[in-house]
Amino acid sequence: MTLRPAVSLALLCAMLAAASVASVAAKTTDRNQPMNISSDQQAGTYTDNSVNVISGNVQIQQGSLDIRSQRAEVTLKNGEASRVVFTGAPVVMKQQMDDGSPMTARADKIDYDMIGENIVLIGNAFVEQPRGSTSGPRISYNMKTGRIDSGGDGSGGRVKTTIMPKSAQAQPAQGKK
């Protein structure tokens, strides 16, 4: 298995960090680290146009980036990763930011469109950093424009955001767990 499609997963975490209340960057040196993927099963060709499935206790680690899910589906177009969909209950993503602070994101599903540079956290979405947290049924972030859209999924769920005072930045955020 070539790790080229998986390397783009580090970009996914960078987007999640940007979607959070605090605007700090994911640890940029992580992208230059080896990526280790472990799971119960992997199936696919990782060539041309294909869908590759990594399933069962999926663990992806690259530097400080740590992603845990039950399933990761990697779609390739012309041999390049174009989309990664993580599912599980929940998908959990953690990474240290360039400033040393931790970032945690959780959702039932995380859908990353690498071509459109858009990430969507769906179902019980939650992003937390020391400066604050955001939660709701759905959180979408566009890497090209920086636009964040959070909102309901028709179920009446509400978006909740906590912004910690700047003086409390060194303390862990007290957001929804």
What is this structure's SSE topology?
Layout: H1 4-7, H2 9-19, E1 35-38, E2 41-43, E3 50-62, E4 65-77, E5 80-96, E6 102-113, E7 118-129, E8 132-142, E9 148-151, E10 160-163
Antiparallel strand pairs: 1-3, 2-3, 3-4, 4-5, 5-6, 6-7, 7-8, 8-9, 8-10
Organism: Luteimonas galliterrae
Protein name: Lipopolysaccharide export system protein LptA
Keywords: Periplasm, Signal, Transport
Any overview of this molecule?
Component of the lipopolysaccharide transport and assembly complex. It is found in: Periplasm. Residues 1-25 form the signal peptide. Residues 131-177 are annotated as: Disordered. The protein has a single domain (4-168), classed as lipopolysaccharide transport protein A fold. Helices cover 8% and strands 53% of the residues. The longest helix is centred in the first third of the chain and has 11 residues, at 9-19. Strands 1, 2, 3, 4, 5, 6, 7, 8, 9 and 10 form a ten-stranded antiparallel β-sheet that branches. It is mainly beta.
